[in-house]
Amino acid sequence: DRKKGKQQIVVGLLVDSEGTPVSVRVFEGNTQDVKTVGDQISVLVKRFGVEEVVFVGDRGMLKQPQLNLLDEHRFHYITAITKPQISKLLEAGVFQMELFDEELGEIEYDGIRYIFRRNPQRVAEIAANRESKLKKLQKLLDQRNVYLAGHSRSKVETGVREVKAYAKKLKLEDWIEVSVEDRRLTLQFNHQACAEDTRLDGCYVIKTDLPAGDIQAAMIHDRYKDLTQVEWAFRTFKQGHLEIRPTFVQTKAGARGHVFVIMPAYLLERELYRCWQNLDITVAEGIDELGSLRGVEINIGDVTCQKVPRPVDLSEKLLQAADVHLPDILPLRQVHVATGKKLTEGRKTKQYRKLTPQMSQDQNGRGDTTS
Fold it and tell me: What's the pTM value of the predicted model, to 2 decimals?
């Protein structure tokens, strides 16, 4: 995540075709993504006893060693190939650039099916991104020219190096050259290299070993696009309110437990999203809204109960959409729960870190719960 000096873990998430989590694994922080595939295959074979599987992974996840491992278990795969691999197939004449169109195309070669397409929307996005990069580079070059014009003793070579380094950072160095004339920098375009780089804009190729008679090309394409379900899951529990990070546990067991707890929470998130998707509200906003419901404690002699308020307005709609019916009253149990904030504050005190056996026994005797 480009955060130097931070410890990290690798999370491997396996979902079904609907995006529902099936298995989650936590690996050492220096584990490469491709190394997690074998573990998930083992889960499918040993724990679930699955015999027929179509494993879908992106081009960085399913490389040849992983494909060989899938073949050993007679699993099929759907993945994509890289642009260099596309260029190699074009040079070999497997398919031609003219075949890339908005409609899906398919070719079978050497026992592998290739489904290809050019996405016009992606072409426009790449072009706009490239134009934005050029403007940034031109802005830096203009700033260098202003500086060189106002500082006669400054070195032109320094400005050239700075512009070239920025071009490399923007990945424009292959078709941009910096020339100098009378202490003024200008950009020279290599149109041939630019045309070579842009010819595959928006083009992608999906490959699979599924027999042609089993699944149509459109379904294979859709299943590969379902990887967005995994991406959505990671965005939800990494950057959303589920907060898989930052992780404050220190042991391997604690890290795995922390990630596992997030998965049932994510399942609830998915279900609430399905229930509330027509209410124009996010899951986090819906939970906050329901958090405004407060019970009223009622004491009648030795009996204590909690009166549940009647939800109104948005709260009522949220509960109805989720098919949840609140009771009128709830028994009031004296349960003490240490929240995340209280737990952090408690750890700062010596009394909390070193609980005496008497205190622990007293807590167990009352049946109190700390989580």
Answer: 0.70
